[in-house]
Amino acid sequence: MVQSFAGKRLEAVPETAEEVIISTRNVDVFYGDNHAIRNISLDIPKHRITSLIGPSGCGKSTFLRCLNRMNDTVESCRVSGEILLDGVDIYGKDVDEVLLRARVGMVFQKPNPFPKSVYDNVAYGPRIHGLAENKDELDEMVLTSLERAGLLDEVQNRLHSSGTSLSGGQQQRLCIARALAVRPDIILMDEPCSSLDPIATAKVEELIEELKTNYTIIIVTHSMQQAARISEKTAFFHMGQIVETGATEQLFTSPSDERTQGYITGRFG
Amino acid sequence: MTDLLDNTGASSWNSERFQKRLKKRKRAEKSFRLVGLGAIVIALTLLAILLFSIASKGYSAFIQTYITLDITFEQSVLDKTGEGHPAALKAANYGKLVRDALRAEFPDVKTRKDLRALFGLVSKEASNQLREMVLADPSLIGRSMPVALLASDDVDMVHKGYIDRKAPQSDRRVKDDELRWLDVLEKSGALSFKFNSGFFTEGDSREPEKAGIAGAMVGSFFTLLVTIAVAFPIGVLTAIYLEEFAPRNRFNDLIEVNINNLAAVPSIVFGLLGLAIFLNVAHLPRSAPVVGGLTLALMTLPTIIIAARSAVRAVPGSIRQAALSLGASTHQTAFHHVLPLAMPGILTGTIIGLSQALGETAPLLMIGMVAFIADIPHSALDPATVMPVQIFLWADSPERAFVEKTSGAILVLLAFFIFMNALAIVLRKKFERRW
Fold this sequence. Notes:
heterodimer, A: alpha/beta, Rossmann fold, six-stranded mixed β-sheet, four-stranded antiparallel β-sheet, 11 helices, globular, B: mainly alpha, MetI-like fold, three-stranded antiparallel β-sheet, extended
């Protein structure tokens, strides 16, 4: 019922105004016998921030991890349906998942810098992909990425001290800088602020908003305020399905489904 | 309701039953603490007794008795032609110099039997000692000087006080005459102790005073070298494959169970395996460290694999995800991130495995490393023995002097173990990364 409704809604309001970079159709995900995601169809607009909200265990992280095939590392995981990135099925036979992940970067819930220097953390991606011709170019790339992540001023003097010695918020921005250094088109963020204090969260949010001019961002968040503050489009997940999707403002002010209403007003979740 | 709450709340903490329970709990804690302390005290005492008994028996292996005699380097004995030809000097009868010196010291000893006993005070090694002196400095010929000569093992035992002088003569290896001569030498200050450098530089010998552990040390070194070279790369790569690449299925579960079982297989079984494969099929040289090393590598592999797997497993998954999300392949993730982070654990496990291999005797008996080998091996293909086998061989020898050699060799082996464990700690600290 809801599914068809959501589907209709998508058809009824085609997002012609916005270029769609990722389009998913009828995606199902199974972990062994557990049917984690059911028949999800969602379009991600280019150079916009899309947020995925919903109660714990609703499948939003699982869906996010389908978009760069990180689910491939989970052995029992099976994905069906169609996920098109610029019109190419990313689960297609001739798609290399390693290259895909270079194009679709990811930032995780808990900051996970490598136990290496700040510089090496950011330089790792360009190094393995051979993006820099020489040392100067690599330096340039590292500095630009740190700059874009708004971290350069804070770490300028300790580029060669360990990335793990930074504060939590700095570590998360270092992880964002690390993802940016590979020059992705899309950045997936899995609750990037959930382990940060409000000040660090504000900084990361500010950064995310700046990044959208060049990148498409998909963010999973538990904070409705965060979704409302930063995203243009929001999808509400519940029990492995999309209940409702639409422009953020519309979804938060006049949700059409009562479960959405219930969740955003704090009655459950 | 409220009454009940009040009752349980206020009075129960002071009630007799509660006090009893409290006392019982405290008593249980105290007695457990005492039992634990007792266990540690017993363990430490036993360890101390062991170390003390080995050290008190073994320290005297590091000193050796020498007899200082006035040696005359007779021209007529050493260099009849007077040309100083090196070959002639090498072949000369140095034993005669020693015998002449002893005869001069004790002119009243006449009979052939007594003379033989007298000459037996000095080690057969003494003539080699004189030969080396003359070859190094031919100008000694024709001169006369006091030289400290290596005493025989029996003299050494008497001088170290290990022979009971009050026992009846028939029960003693050293007879009354010899004791009398030794007393004379002692009085004149001819008997002295010197540091037994030969113990660390010589190979095994049938003469206890000349036997050294260098051959076994070099043999152990080559054996361990082969073991490391084979077991470390294979073990680490196996662990990484099983943890990072292998799919979870029945076949791999079977492999895992078998590796765990292999770790518990008695070491002598590996010796038989080595005998069957490396000697009988591959025809590698018998008694050689290369075969010993390969056999011990088989034995050490499960230990290294198990330690390396748990070290690899302990690397946080978030690091793998971080690398994968940047577009690193599984292979790059494993070798750029997981392996370096697992290294301290892998090294600790490897060194524990190698310590085990260093102390192993049984499998080496099967592949012939128990033979008497006097030469110090020069490569992993030369016949050799290893330290624990050397200890076993000496412990099995009848001469009294080998008792202290055995304990001395154990002390050297223990020193190696302490060194290796210290190395494990240093390496672990060095490679450890904090986050």
